[in-house]
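Troubleshooting: if your tokenizer reports a length mismatch, compare your output against this known-good record of 648 residues.
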Amino acid sequence: MRTNPATGIYSGYYRLVESYRNQSERVCHRTILNAGYLDGLTTDQLNLIQKILTAKVTQNDKPLFELPSTNDPMVKHYVDEFYHRMVAEKRIDTFVEKKEKKVTKNGKDLQMIDLNSIRNKDVREIGAEWLSYQAIGQLQIAPLLEGLGWSEDQIKLALTQLISRAVYPASELKTSQWIKENSAVCEITGYNIEQLTKDRLYSMSRKLYAEKQALEQHLSIRTNELFDIQDKIILYDLTNTYFEGRKQDSQLAKYGRSKEKRSDAKLIVLGLVINPEGFIKYSSILEGNISDSKTLQGMIGKLRIKTSKSAQKALIVIDAGIASDENLKMIKDHGYDYLCVSRSNLKSYHVQADLAHVTVTDNRKQKIELCRVNSERNTDYYLKVESHSKELKERSMNEQFRSRFEEGLQQIANSLIKKGGVKQADKVHERIGRLKQKYPSIQRYFDIETQICDQPQPKGKKKETKQKKNRIVTSVKWNVKEGVDINARSGVYFLRTSLSANTEQSIWQFYNTIREVEATMRVLKTDLDLRPVYHQKDENTMAHLHLGLLAYWVVNTVRFQLKKEGIHSGWREIVRTMNTQKAVTTLAQNNHEEVIMIRRCSEPNQQVRKLYDALKYKYAPFIKRKSVVHKSEIENCQFIEKQHFPSD
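Known-good structure output:
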């Protein structure tokens, strides 16, 4: 409504408007024609003009059906006027223009395109996201969440966040930016990218953590069924990660022994039960100062419900830090067998006369000698392992530690004869104690003697009997204990197990599966960025770690299948390779003044195709999405026509 300048009357100003959907499925409007002030027409006449014009434009003025009939000369006048104006101003497509388009018998869409109008925009990574999405499909996570009562949008957001965590592990803020600016993950999952925020990602990670037990149990059983895994061997180990920040009022974050040497930061402990194929069976998040040997009891009680029936008599492989006598007895009482490294070297043992040494090779083709021995301590099966390469390494380390230890002692001795050096007995003993603490593995082989005397009084000063005497060290001497060989145990360690009927080779193979735990920890900490943790609230911390574990299931599902095909690439290398596949939108203007917009995935290169073929995955989530849009779409596409550089 506006004031008509010709008449001065406040009346309606009419436009012909067309509705359409853009590439984002959003309803938009554009003005086809400014009709102006139509004060002399009634509402029925206006509606009839609109209907006739719509029919004429839709049918290209060659109606297949009868147009709305009218004998009103005023209506006919305006219809003819408006239609000819739209044709003259090229606001509509006419029949003559349309008939030039050709579609061949084999389905080829042939059109004349202005090459100078071709533009590419909205280029996004899609390869790694599509790979992860298909792995999630194998794990059937979406049907599980649907069975738990999740809505369709919640499932789409959960899959979006899970894929993002696997491909681009980062904070919720950076993840939301990556999804909106770099990734095509929402095109794969179908989640509305306009609704994505960091706060929704925070809420979704907590919602996923609330379903931790159901997800773990489902994924444990699903991977067994998917890859025909029996769970005859169970591996258990601990790792810890540190926090950045003070982490005040936390029930989980505690100071403890950091495996990353971050004694200045609070820690949190992650306990994992996995199988030799690398799939997690059970996980627990524990306080940062908990002892390794105290974590096993809670795991044993929940292990049966987390694994398949074939694991009811599984072999549990643990490292020496967890293998206390109390824990080994508990494992046995629950009906499991165990295999571990003996916490202490056996001092009294004997080899059966009828048993010969067995030689095996490790992954580097280096020889290792195995020999079954008996101990007087208990009736367990002990396997003595002698590795020549490990012996050389430990000898080198012992010599290095010995050299540094003796250098430290020499510095203490030299200080006794220097002016202003440390000579007081208590200070010298303190320095020796710190040196022993620094080299605990080597100091036990040395005897250290110090000679102490009372410090003489300076000349001319009266003797004070009540003053405490100042005792000083005059010399420090050391030597290796008699009859001790520092390298006697180099390259030798003992495996302890409750299995008795197995051969040396089988015990050695069982123990080597524990390397899979180390590989799992590396993927979690490095590839999935679980180290360090920046969250300050315990609920966010646990949700963050749990999301990383869910992402690891996706990662290991891919890597396990690739290993079976002889491809042993790390996850970061797989993501780098897959990121060469992009999704891109191409716009071009044809000779009908239409803008053709095509969204398609790039062809996978040879390396990407090799990964898809090994996994038996599809090459792309979609081949081509074509639409015809308004000319303004290509005008909004930002590009650089030409760069000019100043001449020297």
